[in-house]
Amino acid sequence: MSEHGKKYQAAAKLVDPEKLYSPAEAVKLAKSTSITKFDATVEVHMRLGVDPKQADQQVRDVVGLPHGLGKNIRVLVFTAGESAKAAKEAGAEHIADSDEMVKKIQDGWADFDVAIATPEMMAKVGKLGRVLGPRGLMPNPKAGTVVPPEDIGKAVKAAKAGRVEFRLDKTANLHVIIGKASFSEQMLYENFAALMDAIKRARPATIKGVYLRKIVMTTTMGPGVHVDPAGAQSLEV
Q1: Which domains does the chain have, with CATH numbers?
Q2: Do 180 and 39 touch, CB atoms closer than 8 A?
Q3: Which residues of 31-63 are buried (b: 16+ CB within 10 A; e: fewer)?
Q4: Distance (Å, rounded) from C-alpha 187 to C-alpha 192?
Q5: Which residues contact 122 (CB under 8 A, 6 or more apart)?
Q6: Running DSSP on this structure, what letter comes out for residue 224?
Q7: Which of 41, 112, 164, 204 lies at a C-alpha separation of 20 to 30 Å from 68?
């Protein structure tokens, strides 16, 4: 068995696969079972009781995590003129204000984590749907990433502070990062509480049955810790 395998097996023994842990217990276990030499990412995976094929049962929104993500978020902004200057001042790494930049992205360049656009640039951005869409990078008004020029600075700062978008995949699952293994238990707990609050608020009105079916918290390459959905639902920010 490889060294990685031994580490994983030892970490997995600390987790009871049959048990539903409270959010606080899950955070503690996720941190203590992180096995990577680098600062692992802490992720939450959720199965929701919705039908992703129904337009009125989509779950998509953004949440500002109180302690951010523990990494530098690289922001690209589709804008021009004065708002380009505001975007740079707010910390945006890249400004896409030319056809050359649009072509560069079309050719596969994607050295950024969040894309923001002003409405008048959406005609150009629309050409990049096939490239940005599958990567979850397409600017969208619902996600707060299509904003008027006067709000560009605010949007860039929010993105860099740890504003996370979550959206349902085709199998009714959500996958969201809530921080790093180096975060304190309190920081991860508060980020998780903020995420749960946003997911509860994003519940479609047409859902009648159980909304939160399954929640698993894990670190990069670490074992999954099952979180009690009832406990997660009762969290308060």
Answers
A1: 16-59+168-233 (3.30.190.20), 75-161 (3.40.50.790)
A2: yes
A3: bebbbeeebbbbbbebebbbebeeeebbbebbb
A4: 9
A5: 78, 139, 146
A6: P
A7: 204
